[in-house]
């Protein structure tokens, strides 16, 4: 994979993680089911992609 493509993928994963965190928060506020799962998945996805971008993909 090229560096440009890898950066694009990690940025997309960060955006998906942020969206999942927002959706999970709405689920939590409305007391809908699966809110914890969505929040945890969003935090893990966003965190891993952020750590990957900052520490493994050093410019």
Structural overview:
The protein is about 85% helix and about 0% strand. With about 60 residues, the chain is mainly alpha-helical. It has one domain. The chain is elongated. The model has no long low-confidence stretch (mean pLDDT about 95).
Key attributes of the depicted protein:
59 residues; elongated; Gliding motility protein GldL-like N-terminal domain-containing protein; membrane; GldL-like_N; transmembrane helix; transmembrane
What's a quick, concise take on this entry?
By secondary structure, this protein is mainly α. It has helices spanning 3-30, 35-56.
Strand % is under 5%
Seen as an oligomer or otherwise, the chain set is single chain
The tally of helices reads 2
If you compute it from the alpha carbons, what radius of gyration comes out, rounded to the nearest whole angstrom? 13 Å
Structural class: mainly alpha
Mean pLDDT: 94
Count of all domains: 1
Question: Using DSSP, what is the number of strands?
Answer: 0
Largest sheet: none
SSE succession: HH
Separation, N- and C-terminal Cα atoms: 15 Å
Would you identify the regions where 5 or more consecutive residues have pLDDT less than 50? Answer: none
Helix content: over 70%
Choose one word for the global shape: elongated
């Amino acid at each position: 994979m090229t560096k440009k493509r890898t950066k694009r993928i990690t940025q997309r994963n960060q955006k998906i993680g942020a969206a999942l965190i927002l959706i999970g928060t709405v689920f939590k506020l409305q007391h809908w089911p699966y809110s914890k799962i969505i929040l945890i998945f969003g935090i893990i996805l966003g965190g891993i992609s952020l750590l990957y971008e900052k520490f493994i993909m050093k410019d």
